[in-house]
Design brief:
The chain is of the alpha/beta class. The protein is built from three helices and five strands, in the order βαβαβββα. The strands form two sheets. Strands 2-1-3 form a three-stranded parallel beta sheet, sandwiched between helices. α2 packs parallel to α3. The longest helix has 13 residues.
């Protein structure tokens, strides 16, 4: 069984690097660059885990975490 992970980070290079590492470990990876994108992907894909950047262009990872837990 492959776990689904959502990675939310506004740094493209870091997002791609972490995504590649997770893919190599056989995870299913979804990425987003903003809180809005992350919330939409989380709603659509229902990931098993979420990796969040703290500072995002349209909010912060802490607020997004609270939204996703609801």
């Amino acid at each position: 069984m492959s776990y689904k992970i959502l990675l939310v980070d506004d740094e493209p290079a870091l997002r791609h690097m972490v995504r590649d590492i997770l893919l190599a470990e056989q995870y299913i990876v979804f990425t987003a660059a903003t809180c809005a994108e992350g919330a939409a992907v989380a709603t659509a894909e229902r990931p098993d885990a979420v990796l969040l950047d703290v500072m995002l262009p349209d909010g912060d990872g802490f607020s997004l975490f609270q939204r996703l837990r609801q």
